[in-house]
Amino acid sequence: MSTVRNVIEVDSEKVDLKSRSLAAFLAWLIPGAGHYYQGRTIKAGLFFVCIMSTWLLGFALGGFNVVYASWQPGDRRWQYPLQAGVGLAAMPAIVQSLHAKSNTIDNQTKPGFQPFFKGFMAPPNRPVLDNEVDEVSAYYARYGAGYEMGTLYTIIAGLLNILVIYDAYSGPLSVPISGRRPKDDEDEEQASENTEKQAEPASPAEV
Amino acid sequence: MSITFTYLLYYVPLIVAVSLVFGATRHENLQLIIRHSLGTARWITGFMLILMVVLFFFDWVL
């Protein structure tokens, strides 16, 4: 892919997407990092603040237990792949999951198993026994709606970062025609004209 | 309403983040990003309000 093909023009601004694949990978790893690499610093900061604050707020609302990777019977954590859209921040859950899996035999966690990092992003022990408290039910009981909202917040943060990855790879999404109104078009034309005027050198008469 | 009004506060950070990210993934110009974000926030809020009215109506009727 030539360098020229990686330069696009949006809102009358030239954007050098540089290495698109690397930018997309960085965007997944840390929200906004891909844009920072491309020199789109304002958008990088905006994405980082919006996505990470949503993700961290959700993580806190759920008592820091809403992000974990588990595919055990009775606890298929389908939410995790969506939460993992934020990249590095969700990766400790993979480490914990692999560690727990290596200590699980016949869907039963070995007695005395200790997760890493004091259980940070660790999946609950399995199976649930009649005489034991189900850890997931305990999360719900302890945090109530916060647990559900925390899960939702972290999912939304992960999904939003998919849009950001796309933006880092291909540039801004096109505005749907159905969402355009004549006023918006006029405003964009005005913004475009203003940018062109600023770019033009002053005429001799003005000097 | 079966939930307290404070539950609606969960909506505020979400709408801010979602609107800004939506706007920023469609524009490069900051002014246009903010304008698009306001439009998105207004649209989503309106849609949610309509849903709320419909649900209130069914709650009242049924």
From TrEMBL, chain A:
Transmembrane helix as UniProt keyword: yes
Annotated InterPro entries: DUF6677
Region annotated Disordered, chain positions: 176-207
Keywords assigned by UniProt, alphabetized: Membrane, Transmembrane, Transmembrane helix
Pfam families: DUF6677
Span of domain DUF6677: 22-180
Name of the protein: DUF6677 domain-containing protein
Transmembrane region(s): 44-68, 150-169
From TrEMBL, chain B:
UniProt KW Membrane keyword: yes
TM segment ranges: 6-25, 37-58
Superkingdom of origin organism: Bacteria
Record keywords, A-Z: Membrane, Transmembrane, Transmembrane helix
Protein name: Uncharacterized protein
Organism: Stieleria bergensis
